[in-house]
Amino acid sequence: FKLSTLKSKDNLFDENQHIPQEEIVAAGKVVKLASDIEREGFLFKPKTELELGEASLLAGKLEIAEGYFNQALRNFMMPKFGDKEGEVEARIRLGTIAIMRGKTTDAEEYYNQSLDLSKQICYRKGEAKSLGNLGNIKKKRGEYDDAKKLYRECLMIAREVGYSLIEANSLDHLGTLERARGEMDEAEKLHQESLHCFRLIKNRQGEATALNNLGWIAKHRGALNKAKEIFKEASSINREIGRPAGIASDLYNLGIIEKILGNLEHSKSLIEESIMIRRKVGIEGDLDRPIMVLGIIAKMRGEFGEAEILFQESLAIAQKSEDRI
């Protein structure tokens, strides 16, 4: 992965393919970063590789991002750099890529490595990040007590050292955990706290995530129009910042609401677009869910043969995904 691959927006996309505006925004950020790096002459510093990986990830280019993160990890481990904190950060980001691809076991290994190294070098920020990510894996597996313990430990470190972004993320994760346990009042309180924190630090991605979680609580309570408005607000933010993963989630969420409201054609269109974006950027984790919803919609429309095909596809993906471990 060289700078030449990022010299223009066009290089980030397939030829002769319609490019949504939000992806052009994200791609533009990658190109600007690459141009700044070339001008200032510090292309091969591993911290810059991390930045390029982050920008590529925002643009939805998982393969390019993974290449930069792996390159950064190798360089951080070289004697001439010897940056243990950088090594922690690279491993955490590779864990994120693994999660997005549905490879939970690989992600868990990266996070455990980053946690162990963070403790060895007393890198509290890396320790907090690793704990939060391991909590996410525990939550996915339904191990809620273990997840809560990890989230609380992460939150304690964040508040102790003053890491506002990690604090906001921890509150949001705790909210999703309480929602999974059916504790909606507590979940709403935590998500509102999280939203407040994200807005204080002007983190738009986090703001969109917190709003989506509040939307799900409104949906659970039957306030469908309120949920729809919240999901639309989150979608507006994700499109503004050019975040394909967030846009895909927003489309899915809105599709679920439209299905419940009985607008099956609109629901189908939204969820199909969500699946298209996920596949385009390589997000395989949880892909079985939107496909299953398409199957339900087909069944509701009396298209039983199509429904059976979609259910079988969803089942095959679920069985293959390590997220079901």
Descriptive labels:
325 residues; mainly alpha; globular
List the helices and strands and how they pair.
Blueprint: H1 21-40, H2 46-58, H3 62-76, H4 84-100, H5 104-120, H6 124-140, H7 144-161, H8 164-180, H9 184-200, H10 204-220, H11 224-241, H12 244-260, H13 264-281, H14 288-300, H15 304-320
Low-confidence stretches at least 5 residues in length (pLDDT < 50)? 1-25, 37-43
Q: Number of helix segments? A: 15
Largest sheet: none
Mean pLDDT: 86
Brief synopsis:
The chain is an all-alpha fold. Helix content is 77%, strand content 0%.
Can you describe this structure?
This protein has 325 residues and is mostly helical. 77% of the residues lie in helices and 0% in strands. It is built from 15 helices and no strands. Helix 3 packs antiparallel against helix 4 and helix 6 packs parallel to helix 8. The longest helix is centred in the N-terminal third of the chain and has 20 residues. The two termini are 33 Å apart.
